[in-house]
Structures are given as structure tokens and as C-alpha cells.
């Protein structure tokens, strides 16, 4: 046996096999590949993106213009301080309130709010909260502060829903308020 010739074949056979497999793999891969053309989808998405960007720019422009338009109105409001009270008085509809509750309701009667009685109403009056609007704008923490000023016997009351109820009364949503109070006995959320 000639070991010298055998050594060449050990190198030559794997090299030729690898080369042939590489050529076959290249042509096989090239023949099966499909070229996917996404240019139409890409164009649609680019157009959609451009429209959305234009909408966003228009919204941002409105936001920058809106505060300037609101500012002059705020300056004009102090001239007619009596107007908001007269608007609130005109908005109160005693007949609608009576229809919803089945009893006569006075304007800005805090006792309409479930959970507030005559003594708690007096506590709110001490804190200069005398209207439904004032109570609707008060935070729950402020309502709790009012209750705490009355002492321990008011500890059982939960004022969490009082601003919301008074807001409904202030807006004149009498049916909505009556329904809410029917569903939530004791005025608790």
C-alpha cells in the first residue's frame, strides 16, 4: 500500500464533496426563493402615516391657538359677576326636582344630598359651603374636614359621594340623582 497516494485522497474526496454540495445547495436555494414585493403595502402605509401626521399637526395647532382664544374671555368675565348666580338660579327647576323626589326641593338645600342632615348642613355653612355648586367643587378631604369639625359623633358618615351628588343637583339631573340615591342606600359608593 502506498501511503503517500492515500494521503492525497483523504484530502481530495472531502474537498470535492463539499464543493459539489455547495454548488448544488446554491442552485437549489436560488431556485426556491420567491421575491416578495411589498412596495404597494409600503406605499399605502407611507400615505397613511402622512395623513396621520397631518392630523396630528392640525390638532397641535388647535391646542396652541385655543389658549389664546380663551384668554380674552377670562378677562371679560369679571365685568359681570352677577351673571353666574342668575344663570344658576335660572337653571334650578323646582317642578322637575319635585317630580323626581316627590317632595318640594329648595334651591341649594344641601339636605338633598343623601347623608347630609340639618346639623351637617350647618357644619358646611360654617365652612362657607352653602350651595350645591360649592359642595360639588369641594374635595372629599374637605368634606371630611367639615365632618371632623363637628366631633366624634359625625365619624360614621362617609362623604365620598357628596360632591358627586351635589354636582347632579347643581346641574339639575334630578332623575339621575334620585336613581343614584335609590341604588345606593345611605349615600355610600
Describe it for me?
The chain is mostly helical and 189 residues long. Helices cover 69% and strands 0% of the residues. It has nine helices and no strands. It has helices at 3-32, 39-76, 82-91, 94-101, 118-126, 132-137, 140-149, 162-171, 174-183. Helix 4 packs parallel to helix 9 and helix 8 packs antiparallel against helix 9 (174-183). It is elongated, with a radius of gyration of 39 Å. The model is unreliable at 76-90 (pLDDT under 50).
Spell out the blueprint of helices and strands.
Elements: H1 3-32, H2 39-76, H3 82-91, H4 94-101, H5 118-126, H6 132-137, H7 140-149, H8 162-171, H9 174-183
What's this model, at a glance?
By secondary structure, this protein is mainly α. The chain is built from nine helices and no strands. The longest helix has 38 residues, at 39-76.
Helix content: 55-70%
- Given the helix and strand composition, which structural class is it? mainly alpha
Main sheet characteristics:
none
Q: How would you state the average pLDDT, rounded?
A: 81
- In percent terms, what proportion of residues is strand? under 5%
N-to-C SSE string, H for helix and E for strand: HHHHHHHHH
Assembly state of the chains shown: single chain
Radius of gyration: 39 Å
Q: Give the number of DSSP strands.
A: 0
Give the termini distance in whole angstroms: 101 Å
Per DSSP, the total helix count is 9
Shape: elongated
Could you list the spans in which at least 5 consecutive residues all have pLDDT below 50? 76-90
Amino acid at each position: 500500500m502506498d501511503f503517500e497516494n492515500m494521503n492525497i485522497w483523504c484530502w481530495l474526496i472531502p474537498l470535492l464533496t463539499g464543493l459539489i454540495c455547495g454548488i448544488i445547495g446554491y442552485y437549489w436555494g436560488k431556485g426556491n426563493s420567491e421575491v416578495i414585493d411589498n412596495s404597494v403595502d409600503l406605499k399605502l402605509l407611507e400615505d397613511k402615516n402622512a395623513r396621520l401626521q397631518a392630523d396630528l399637526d392640525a390638532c397641535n395647532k388647535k391646542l396652541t391657538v385655543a389658549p389664546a382664544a380663551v384668554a380674552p374671555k377670562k378677562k371679560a368675565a369679571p365685568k359681570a359677576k352677577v351673571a353666574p348666580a342668575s344663570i344658576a338660579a335660572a337653571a334650578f327647576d323646582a317642578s322637575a326636582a319635585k317630580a323626581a323626589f316627590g317632595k318640594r326641593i329648595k334651591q341649594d338645600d344641601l339636605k338633598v344630598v343623601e347623608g347630609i342632615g340639618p346639623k351637617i348642613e350647618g357644619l358646611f355653612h360654617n365652612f362657607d359651603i352653602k350651595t350645591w355648586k360649592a359642595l360639588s367643587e369641594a374635595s372629599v378631604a374637605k368634606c371630611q374636614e367639615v365632618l371632623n369639625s363637628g366631633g366624634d359623633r359625625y365619624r360614621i358618615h362617609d362623604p365620598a359621594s357628596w360632591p358627586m351628588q351635589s354636582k347632579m343637583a347643581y346641574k339639575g339631573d334630578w332623575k339621575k340623582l334620585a336613581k343614584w340615591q335609590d341604588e345606593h342606600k345611605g349615600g355610600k359608593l
